[in-house]
Amino acid sequence: IVVVMSDAKKEARAAKRAQRKQQYRQFWQAFNMQRKQDKALLPIMLATVVGVALAFFLIGLLWGGEWFMLIIGIMFGILAALWVFTRRMERNVYAQAEGQPGAAAWAVENLRSGPGMVWRSTPNVEVTPQLDAVHRVVGLCGVVLISEGDPHRVKSLLAKQRKRISKIVGNTPVYEIHTGTGEGEVPLAKLQRQLVKLPRNIKKNEVHSLSTRLESIDRTMGAGAALPKGPIPKGARVSGMNRRMKRAQKH
């Protein structure tokens, strides 16, 4: 038994090491890709490290222990620089995805949860053959219908989805957001910020129960379509996707 447990621990440690190596490799690849596209990235990251370290050093001069505070400042500066890298990379990804069919579906699936934020996302609850789509997000604000594509075509999709869920949501507020870069539209990069601004109308435990009930309606009504995961690259052949969507809707 001792030998078996020892072997299991060794395998677990080896798996963790392999996972860490994979994560470091992925991070390094992402960093190099962003660095090549974003020439200001390295100067900004270096300025962030130096600025934070200098601030801690000056605090140390006032209170004593300036060299110790400098070391602490360098560590915090590195963390701040990594945060800058993450945000700039995220902004670049959103900019490349903006305007592509399926981009809003990808965005709602990648909403960040955290303290005071709970999201249950269901992409592609309504889709047209032209790849206009409505996605649903349930959060503390209630239900949010997020649309992408032609604003005129999605109006009927939104009305259809509102009618479908009306008996389930009851008095829970239902909001509508159309993604895009035009007037009155919300860019993908600002989607989560826009959602956070909405008032809190329901409790955390109600979010999960409401989302589960809505998902059961989706299964019963056969909502949604088999769209590819993530934004569809520009120039991709949409006709074949339309055929796959129609077949999925029939089933």
Q: How is the secondary structure organized here?
A:
Elements (H helix, E strand, L loop, with lengths): L1 H36 L3 H23 L2 H32 L5 H7 L10 E8 L5 E7 L2 E7 L2 H19 L4 E5 L12 H7 L6 H18 L16 H13 L1
Parallel strand pairs: 3-4
Antiparallel strand pairs: 1-2, 2-3
Structural description of this entry:
This protein is an alpha+beta fold and 251 residues long. Helix content is 62%, strand content 11%. It has eight helices and four strands; from the N terminus they run ααααβββαβααα. Strands 1-2-3-4 form a four-stranded mixed sheet, with helices on both faces. Helix 5 packs across helix 7 (204-221).
The whole-number mean of residue pLDDT values reads 81
- Identify low-pLDDT runs: 232-251
Separation, N- and C-terminal Cα atoms:
52 Å
Strand order of the largest sheet: 1-2-3-4
N-to-C SSE series?
Answer: HHHHEEEHEHHH
* Tally of individual helices: 8
Give the C-alpha Rg: 23 Å
Structural class: alpha+beta
From the spread of the alpha carbons, the general shape counts as: elongated
Count of beta strands: 4
* Helix content estimate: 55-70%
Please report which band the strand proportion falls in: under 5%, 5-15%, 15-25%, 25-35%, 35-45% or over 45%: 5-15%
Mind describing the biggest β-sheet?
A: 4 strands, mixed
